[in-house]
Amino acid sequence: MKNPQQRYHPSQIIMHSLMALLMVLTFMFGSYVADLPLSPAKFQLISYHKWAGMTVLLLAFIRIALRLAHGAPALPAAMSAPARLAAHAGHLALYGLMLAIPLSGWLMSSAYGFPIVLFGVLPLPDLIAANPDLAERLKHLHELLTQVLLITVVLHIAAALKHQFIDRDGLLQRMSLRR
């Protein structure tokens, strides 16, 4: 670990909160848009969802760079080996999903033949050729990964609350800007 301190670096704490908020809003917005009838307005709203997803992807790469640069504070010494393994697996899953979900959306959009034009001005390249059958499979993958993320986030929050209120080991303070 590169961080011998008891807290994450402030940039990591800010990025954690920013990404959590953006991912919740992107999930809620995507769920809302998915249920709308086809219309020009729906396509515009889907564009906003894509922009948010690409922003999550960019921020995920920045977050990974920050993690590599600053490391993470040590887990509490009293944590069991299985609990440590679960914590590491959970964080790895969260980072993987922060990359996989936007990438699956980008692949899906490419397969549907609908380009992503970031913020209406920056066209992103299609990652694959248009293929409606593959697009449908990628849509299901995107939705499945999103559900896995939802479950993983709920478990992450539950574990943090367990540490705060049951174990009382100060683990949650690692993600606080207050000293």
How confident is the prediction overall: mean pLDDT? 95
Given the helix and strand composition, which structural class is it?
mainly alpha
Strand arrangement in the largest pleated sheet:
1-2
Weakly predicted, low-confidence segments: none
- The gross shape turns out to be elongated
Describe the structure.
By secondary structure, the chain is mainly α. 69% of the residues lie in helices and 2% in strands. The chain has four helices and two strands, in the order αααββα. The protein has helices at 10-34, 40-70, 81-112, 132-167; strands at 117-118, 122-123. The chain has a two-stranded antiparallel ribbon. Strand 1 (117-118) and strand 2 form a beta hairpin. Helix 2 (40-70) packs antiparallel against helix 3 and helix 3 (81-112) packs antiparallel against helix 4 (132-167). The chain is elongated. The two termini are 21 Å apart. The mean pLDDT is 95.
Task: Briefly summarize what is shown.
By secondary structure, this protein is mainly alpha-helical.
Topology:
Layout: H1 10-34, H2 40-70, H3 81-112, E1 117-118, E2 122-123, H4 132-167
Antiparallel strand pairs: 1-2
Helix pairs in contact: 1-2, 2-3, 3-4
Any key phrases for this structure?
179 residues; 2% strand; two-stranded antiparallel ribbon; 69% helix; mainly alpha; elongated; 4 helices; single chain
